[in-house]
Structures are given as structure tokens and as C-alpha cells.
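Could you please consider the sequence and fold following this short note?
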Amino acid sequence: MSTRIGFSGDSAVVVEEGPGRTGYVDPGAPVDGRLVTLPDGRTVKQVTPADFESLVTVRTLYLDSGDPVAGVDPLAGHLSSRRLVVHLREGIRDESVAVWFPGSPSDDQWEVDSSPTGDVLAAIDRAVAAAAPEGWHELLVECEAVGARLAVWSTVTMADGAKLHWAPPAIVGQWFHRMRAREYKPHRGVWHHKVYRFKPGQRPAHVQAPLNAAMMSEEDAADELRLMPRNLALAPERLLRLAVASEQSQRAYFAADEDYDGEPESVRLFDGVDESGKPIWYRPVLGTRERAAVSAYLRGAPVVLSARGVTVDQLDPDRTVPMGFHTDGRYVWPSAAAYYLDAHGVPPAMPLLEHIRAARHRLPADIPTLVLDRAAAVAMGRPWDEPAADALAEQVRRSLEPVIVEKRISPRFYSLFTARDRAWSILRVGDRYRVQWGLDQRTAVDFADVGQAVAHLTGQLFVNAEDLEFQLEEEIPAWQSPLAVLGDDPPVAAFAAVTTVMIENLDVDRYGGPDGNLVFRAGTPFEQRGLPPEFAQRPYHRYRISGAAWQVVAVTAAAGGVGYVLPESVGEYVRSGHLREISVADHPGLPPVTDAMRAEAARTPGGWVYCADPDADPQYFPDMPSAILLGGHRVGPDGRFTGETWVNDEYRPSPRRRGYPEPQTPFEQVLGYVAAGWLAHEWILAAAMESPFILESDGRGGLRIGVDANGRQFLVVYSSPRFVPPNAQNVQQADGRDLAKALAGLTLVVNPGGGFGIELPGDDLVLVAAGTPPA
């Protein structure tokens, strides 16, 4: 069984596997990370490989058989009487980059290694002495390393002369790994086998020993030349032969130019600090040519977080270091990485360097904007929120809106983030955006930025617009309406359906002044227009459309009324003669002057005596609204009529003059007044409370509830017997206030199928019955 171990400075911690490339460590581990709570209730620190100097797997084996040793703590070491117990350490290979060798330009030129000169052997001595078995007299510690594989084992001589076998703790192997990195030189490579003799109080002594041939596999050899490239002419024959065999087995290939689909990882600038606080690093030095290639890569990558300031050089306080962060989509690194490489020869962290080598030191052709955004979040140390699909779709729609509206593109021919046959679609594919026609992948074009994709789709819609237009009477989204409502009438988006139609020789009307452009088919009941209730008190005007056919936007209210949005205001068309206002047909004129009117004039010198429609019941109209006024007679200063009259053009014909039936109940009287525009809509709700209704039961004493095609539930009632159909069954009578208790969530349909009915929201009736006015 293997254990994942992460190293940072003198610390080694066990890393539990997490999602993606992340892992979990103890919350007190001396590494950066984010505290999270796992489903099992544990609080841990979530980390990435870049949070460690090295991340490896460690196995403890009996070297003579290869069997695993049970019950071993790789952080503490293991003592055994069985011959050759070994800790076998393997780097965690990323197959997306561990793909070929050599990994860098090879040359014989290299500069003097400027890495810190701290005594790695002394550090190994301290690590061995701290963990060595109690009572030891001498230790012979061996290390074999090729590529990402490293094995450490030891023979220990006890004070009584007994010989045992010891697998040192994992940190000892890390120090040997650091020794290899320090002693590597690009022109000749580095050692593969070291043996040291340790005695208490003495400096370790180096012992010559041959390399174990069984230790080196083809993959190990290829990794060796990839991780520590060198002049191949000077490479050992067996190392080169095995590496070539790995390549010939088709393991070696160029890294694919595929987008990385995870969160970019930040990399550390150094591997730690020494006793004085000065930075240290354990990385193979770069040759002159590769240093230039890596520096160009680091500097040329897009900047995701810029800063104008500089910071002090941690290796030379007299110099300054630029600030900022770069990314290639896979890793995020500070601008200082290129500076320290150029100024002091500090190589970038190994995961980044390995990635650069796998890419042949070439930056990606482009990096998706979403990846750059993620990298910026990593650089700032904050979480990155994936753009919500709905918000992104709305952003794209707004960008496409001008061409779609101007060119009248049918919704059948465009699709946002869903591929659809015979339509231009914009799709998200990974972190890129794709534009294609229908389901044909051959037409697909991918973009790194959504703005580029929108621009391409805009062009396709523009050049193909003639074949993509919507047809007359085809329903379109409200935002795509080629015409907008003027004034304070409800906008197009307030209606249930929107189409374009041709109209001619049609009578239309509107509630409101001539500055608006929303009209309805003449005679459409007010309740079916989808207008605010207070609009019923506005001046009523009727017009006739003349001339050639008009193309307009038709809007259908939820209650069924059909209106038209005209290109210009009503006033403009009246002035141009395209609309002709029609006088109210049934205005009866002013009544004759009576003695009662003369007496009123005598009491109102200098004023007016107004005449109301005699069909108006005074109990409903104490304030004489304009809609019921026929007009008036002017009174002179002497209290006599002057002969001047005023005919009210805002008068609205009474229910009787409109042909409505004579009311038989208070509800029908109020309904007539509301339909005539004499009373506000709220009156009908109150009247329903105090009126009886006739309805059909379900035969078991319950209400007969209907459901329409849209799933709306309704209850049909009749305001008087004359409206009850002859085939009605199980007829009964109920008061409106009693009915209201059962109307929550329903629609009350009064007198359906005739010209004298109305639909009332049951929830409004429930509120009125409870003494609460509806909103």
C-alpha cells in the first residue's frame, strides 16, 4: 500500500486524495490551503500539488521479494530483522506532461549554480540521527534514484554488534532528492547511486557502490532525461538505451494542445528559507539555452494581475523585483519568477518547469477568457464563481439583440447555449465558445472569448438575414418586438403573446390621450385588455384606420384582448389623416332645461350646471365622475343660463346605450357600470360579495371545478337565471361571500360565452371577503 506524502521545508505530511488534483491534510499542517469540512464531519485543509515542494507516493517493501511491509508509518521509518527493508518513493506522474525526452535545448554551456550552498549532507545527517533506532552504532544508508523514482534503505549496526535493516523516514529520501537537484549539472547530469556511512558524532562518509541495474526501467530512464536533461552524447549508454526504448514503445509524444479543464494552480517562488530567513530552493539548474527559453515563456504569458509597484529582491536587497502574475492556463506564477531566473538563476518550480518542457517551451496560441478569469482569482487568493448559465445567456442575448431586432431574425433560426437543427447556435464547449449551424459539426468555429463568438454569430445572422426573417403572425419574444410602446401604457413585455400582423380598415380605441401608440380592437371589454384598473378612468377615444394595410405589432393580453402597437403616436396619425377619430355614437345630447335646473343656476351664478346620464344611480356616483357627465350649461353672473353649452367628449355611453341587458341584481348593475367605464374594477369585487350566484354542483354537493388547456382551474357561475344554459345540471344558488371561502387559487368565471360576463381572480375575492383589499 502506498501513501501520498507532501514535503515543505523540514516537514513531511500525509496527503489524503481529494477531488481533481487536490488533496486533504491535517488542519495544522505547515502548508497553505483552505479549511473545508468533509461529509464525515472532519475539518481538513484542502491543498494542491503546487502547495508543496514535492508530492510523492511512498511504499515500504522487502527488497528481496518486493512484498509490502504492513503497518508502517512512512513518516517515522521502520526497523526489521528481515533483509533489506526499503522506502520506495515515486513522483506522482502527470501523463499530460510526462510524455517525451529530452525536455530542453541541450548544450554544453551552463553557468555556475547560484543556488544556496547550505550543507544538504549535514541536513541528511540530522534527519537520520533524529529518527535512527535507539542504540545504533553505525548506519550504512543507500539511495538509488532515476527520474521520479527514488529508493532509500539502510543497514544498522547496533551497539551489541547485531545487524538490522531500517527504512528511514520519508524526509530522508526528500533530502537525497534535494541533493540530486543541487548536484545536477546540465552538461553531465547527476549521480544515480549514493552510499553514506553514519556514526554518532562523525560527519557522514561517502562509500562507492554500483547502481542496481534492476532499479532502472524504461520509463524511469525517460523521466530522468526529461526531468534532468543533459547532453545526450555524455549520457550513460544504458540510460540512453532504455529511454529510447520508452520512446519507441510510443510512450513519448508531444503534449496535446488541449485546454486544461481544472482550476489553474499557483506555484511557489522558492522552496523555503534557511536559518537566516534567506530563500532557498532545491531545483536542477538550467543550461544557458534553456534558461533563455524558459524566461521567454514566463515573461510572454498573459498578465492576469498587474501592479505598478516593485518589491525588494530577497537575494540582493539593492535590487527591485517587478510585481504581477502571469498564466498559461495551467499554472499561475508571479512576475518575479522570470526575474529571479534571469538575475539569480533560480529555476521555476518543478511542476511548472515540467509543463513548460512538455509544451516545447511554446505558449498556447490563445487562452480562453474564462481560464484567465480563474487564474486572476487564484492570483488574488479568492474563490472564482462560475458565470451562471442564465446570466451568461442574458449577456449574450443583449449583445445579439441589435442585429436580431434590426434584421427581424426569427427565433426559429437562433439558439443560445443549446444546439438546434436549422438554427445558428452559440454553445459553451469546456471553457471555449462555439458557433455552428444546426447540428453540423463541420460548421463549428471555436473561440476563446464569448465576445469573439458573439461577433461571429452576429456576422452570420447579418449576412444570412434575408433567409432568417420571422413571418407575419409568428410569435416572437417581447424583447424582439420591432416596435415599443410609447408613454405610460404597459410595455410589450407585459403581454402574454407578441406577433406582427397586417391591419386595414379597422376600428380601434384606447383609454388615454393621443401621445400613446397602444390601441385595441374597438369594443374589447376593458377587463380583457391587461391594462391597470385605473386606466378605466382615462378619456376614451375611438378611431378608424384608413388607407393601405399597416404592419404593426399585435399584443395579446392574458385575458384574451388583442391590442396593436403602432409605429408612431395616435396623435401623429390623426394629424396625418391616417387615423380618424369617431365621435361617441350614442351620446344623447344635453337634456332640455327644466325648472329644477333653473333653480340650480340661480344658486350658482358665474358657474355651470352639469347634467349626468339619467341611467347613473346616484348611490354609486356621489362625486359625478366625468364619464357619466353628458355636459353642462353655463350660468351668467345674474344666475341665468347664458345659452353657452358644453358637450362632454369624455362621456361614455351607459350600459343600456351599449346594449347591455337590464340589470336584475346589484352585481349586474355594477358589472354594467364597470364595463361602461363608469366605475373602477374594484367595485365588482365588493358587489360579488353581496350578490347571489347560480352554479352547477358536481352532483355530490361539491363545486364543479373546471381546468382549461393551460392548467388554470375555474368555477363557472351565473349572475341571474337568464344566463343559465338550458342543459345545466344540479343547479344551486350560493352567495358570493360564501363562495369566496372556496375560491383560493381559482378563477371565478361569470356568465361565460355571452357578451355580459367577467372573470375574477378567486384570490382577490378571498381577500375582499376577509376585509383586505387586493394588491
Summary: Confidence is low (pLDDT under 50) at residues 252-256. The domain at 666-769 is CATH 3.40.1350 (Trna Endonuclease; Chain: A, domain 1). The first strand starts at residue 3 and ends at 8.
